[in-house]
């Protein structure tokens, strides 16, 4: 069935199934935009749980694209700031992406920090081993400092630990 016949409907089932109706690739974005506007209209007639259910069903058929939906949401927010926020709250795919991005970002930062600390400790241990070996071979602290490009104080500190 042609999707445009249903965009003015207040039927929640029509909204949920809009993505399965007849449209081509060129119309996909336009249809997605019209669908989200339809959801905004329905929010005055349905509770959040029913709206979320409709959006979950629709997302199964839409195969939402994060970048494309991001552009659409920004346009919706320009038209209606509150409406854009409502859509973000109800859209399961956006919640999932936000959650995944948050976890990924946190893991990346944690790994970076862990790697930095690990590298610092590794360098410290390596320098300590080199300082001890060179001092054990009879090099003076001054010669060790010059050879491995450390300050004399750093060589003395590493020799003590």
Helix and strand arrangement:
Blueprint: H1 12-17, H2 25-42, H3 48-62, H4 66-79, H5 81-90, H6 92-136, H7 141-148, H8 152-160
Protein name: Rpn family recombination-promoting nuclease/putative transposase
Organism: Cohnella herbarum
Structural class: mainly alpha
Overall, the morphology is rod-shaped
How big a fraction of the residues is strand? under 5%
Mean pLDDT: 82
Oligomer: single chain
Question: End-to-end span in angstroms?
Answer: 78 Å
Low-confidence stretches: none
| Record field, number of beta strands | 0
Helical residue percent?
Answer: over 70%
Radius of gyration computed on alpha carbons? 30 Å
Number of domains: 2
Order of helices and strands: HHHHHHHH
**Biggest sheet layout:** none
Number of helical runs? Answer: 8
Key features of this structure:
8 helices; 2 domains; Rpn family recombination-promoting nuclease/putative transposase; single chain; mainly alpha; 78% helix; rod-shaped; 161 residues
Verbal overview:
The chain folds into two domains: 3-90; 116-160. Helix content is 78%, strand content 0%. It contains eight helices and no strands. It has helices spanning 12-17, 25-42, 48-62, 66-79, 81-90, 92-136, 141-148, 152-160. α4 packs antiparallel against α5 (81-90).
């Amino acid at each position: 069935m042609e999707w445009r016949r249903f965009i003015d409907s207040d039927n929640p089932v029509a909204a949920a199934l809009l993505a399965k109706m007849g449209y081509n690739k060129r119309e996909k974005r336009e249809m997605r935009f019209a669908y989200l506007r339809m959801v905004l209209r329905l929010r005055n007639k349905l509770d959040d749980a029913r709206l979320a259910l409709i959006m979950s069903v629709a997302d199964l058929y839409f195969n939402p694209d994060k970048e494309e939906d991001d552009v659409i949401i920004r346009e919706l927010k320009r038209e209606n700031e509150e409406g854009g926020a409502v859509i973000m709250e109800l859209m399961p795919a956006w919640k999932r992406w936000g959650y995944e991005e948050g976890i990924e970002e946190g893991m990346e930062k944690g790994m970076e920090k862990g790697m930095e600390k690990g590298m610092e400790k590794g360098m410290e241990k390596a320098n300590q081993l080199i300082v001890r070996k060179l001092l054990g071979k009879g090099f003076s602290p001054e010669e060790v400092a010059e050879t491995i490009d450390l300050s004399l104080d750093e060589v003395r500190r590493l020799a003590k630990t």
